[in-house]
Amino acid sequence: MEKSIEKRELREIESISFPVRPDRWLLYFQEILMFLLTIIYSALAAYLYEKTVIEIAGIAILAGAGFGCVLFAMEQSIENESFLYDNDEHLWRFVIIYLLSFGASVLFPMIPAGGWPYLVIFVGLMFFSNRITGLCAGCVLLMITVLIKENGIVPFLNYFISGLVGILVFSYIYETFKIWFPLMISLMIQAVCLLVQELLLAEGPVTAAMLSVMALNLVVCFILLLLLLKYFSFSLVYRNRDLYMEINDPEYPLLVELKEFSKEEYYHAIHTAYLCDRIGKRLGLRDRVIKACGYYHRIGVLKGGNNWVNLQMILEEQHFPEEMKSVLQEYADDEERMVSKEAAVLMICDSLVSSIRYLFSQDASAELEYSPIINLVLKETIESGRINHSAVSFGEIQAIRRILLEEQLYYEFLR
To answer: Which one is the CATH code of 250-414: 2.20.220, 1.10.3470, 1.10.3210, 1.10.287?
Structure first.
């Protein structure tokens, strides 16, 4: 009992401590650099816009306090490993986009408030970090612009709402990269916010110039968002797609090594990957990810035992995609809560392959009734409690059952 308490207390201590990284000094340097430049440049910009000493001090203090929230969000994201893509390994991306956005934010007061393309800034900051960090950083820059421009609270609220919507809708393209729906939604909300700001809440009469500025803002946002999305599609999304095509090849060197180590483990992985792929495609899951997890979910045996420590070591050595690592951690780490549908499907397929192969090992010529076996595997999976917190629904469990029943001819290859 005392050992279990000590272990739990140790996990609690570890859960509130920041991770130790070999490049920690570089992270500190980048964070301090952004913090100091935010304060110095905001004060300098306020001075150049001929603000009073009190106003300059106030803008600098608020900018520093706001960026303190950004720093906290960054540190929490590093601890939780919740950065999108591989941004936690390349923080310089966020540093560059933040400094460029900061430079733009202090120039925006020179143009009418209806022409600020803050939608692109919010979405760009999110893409190069994650949702909470991008939102905090975007709000800080927007605050600096509004304080310098002295336009009141309306522009801040309008651009905050459009930026928030942009972050929310674009955050869902992380896995599918279907861009047109979020692009249209974000621009539509931006247009509505601009109309409220320039038409309904305007102090003077509406002019053609005001409408032209609004239209130009939407066009600029549209073009810049397309360029931003194109960069991510080619540098990150398609790169991962090509990587999955490579690692999902049964002749991939690591799988060949597994085959030489143990043909039993190799063929178990092949069969599991096949079933995962079939279910993933039918249910609309990340089929490339789940297929790769099927291939490599037992690769830890190459390090002496198929546990999460060994599995993680190999995944890191091979530089496999983060989303794949996340699913495998949910599956292999007993202390990790299983929440993704892919991890639940992997568990079911692995259990079914193990059960059928075990029965054939007892009698290779046996004529098995697969329906009771599939029902039993699903029943035991549910009763185990491992998928209690999973996003997979009861209807999807039934769909998985039907898909597995359709593959009865394939199970003959497991003999």
So the answer is: 1.10.3210
